[in-house]
Specification:
- Strand 1, helix 1 (15-29) and strand 2 form a beta-alpha-beta unit.
- The chain has helices at 15-29, 68-77; strands spanning 2-7, 33-38, 81-85.
- The chain contains 2 helices and 3 strands.
- Helix content is 27%, strand content 19%.
- A 3-stranded parallel sheet has the order 2-1-3, with helices on both faces.
- By secondary structure, it is an alpha/beta fold.
């Protein structure tokens, strides 16, 4: 079993990061292979709305432009479990 853990909190070592690390340890304790990523430490450009991914004979969900996020997306598509932690700002 493969688990991907993504910390989308800009405060990497705060509460959400601690909760995700704890969840990752729990997944490892039941035999899951875990990979942990901090989104604020990777190089990602975001969608450039080029629509290359939507052309015929192209694999769905595969961006033509490669960055660090491309590798993570591949791992997500092959994982059994995905855990994402992020801040929710309200008021």
């Amino acid at each position: 079993m493969k688990t991907i853990v993504i910390n989308a909190d800009p405060k990497i070592k705060q509460e959400i990061g601690k909760l995700l690390k704890s969840a990752a340890k729990g997944a490892e304790s039941v035999g899951s292979e875990v990979e942990y990523f901090d989104l604020y430490k990777i190089d990602m450009r975001g969608c450039m709305i080029c629509s290359i991914c939507k052309k015929k004979n192209k694999e769905s969900f595969k961006c033509y432009w490669k960055d660090d996020l491309s590798q993570i997306i591949e791992k997500i598509l092959n994982a059994d479990t995905l855990l994402i932690g992020s801040q929710i700002f309200f008021n």
